[in-house]
Fold Mechanosensitive ion channel-domain-containing protein.
Amino acid sequence: VDINSNSRARKLANKLFDALQGTRDYLTMRDFIPYFNTQKDAQKAFALFDKDGNGDVTKKEMRDRIIATYKERRALNASLRDMSQIVGKLDKILVVISVVLIAIFCSMVFGQSPAASLVSFGTLFVAWSFIFGGTLKNMFECLIFLFITHPYDAGDQVVVNGVTMTVAKVRVLSTVFTRGDGQYVCAPNITLLGLFINNLRRSPPQNETVVMNFDFYTPEAKLYQLKDRLNQLLDQYPRIFVPGVGFSLDNILDANKLVVNLSLNYKSNWQNGGPRAEGRNKFMMCLRNAMIELNIK
């Protein structure tokens, strides 16, 4: 099936779900078994869509999985294209160097005496080193950065100097990033070589901490009721969250505030920011509503 856009991926997901569902609004593994040779293959296919592990697949889960697969394939194609272009340019550079070396060898064999040839080409080499020495050094370091360090591929979400961006295109001497507001940022690879780069795609499932300052006189029972409310929310969204919110009293400020850390564990990394934003919004709204109902300030 040729999928070349998000809309086509969404249509394919809806078509597959409607063909498999029968009269239900969810799928089970039994719906997959007739289309595979073995039950083991059916289980593997079902597990790809059942991300929350609850034993059924909703239309949203199938749609998200197929769209994510399309995006991964698109990123892989872009990465292969960029690497192919880099290798092609490197090949041209090596061809030029080979031609120069062959010309020197032929001159030494068929032309002047070896000593005279070495003096002539040595002078020329010294002149070239002053002109192109810095460029060649930077190019060599960039190639080490791209092929040995290899911190990212096209399509990866990365954090550079505290800014989250998507890798749009990788070149020999520079990398083009896309910011969240749509701006294109072109950064020299020689500069990126000395920076810390966080790659979200290659990261394991991530977590975050929400720091809250509660009134010093807040009863302990109300804090535990708040924790229970938040745990109930996490149980309602097993596709996004790992059950159980971290709840720890971190500090007491000036006998006036209770500093409480609320830790959220996600089931995936933040390469796809949609589930994280959806889950965080629901968590913050639940926290707000619970604080109002429990009269916690």
Q: What stands out?
A: Strands lie at 26-27, 57-58, 157-160, 163-170, 174-179, 184-188, 197-199, 207-215, 246-253, 257-265.
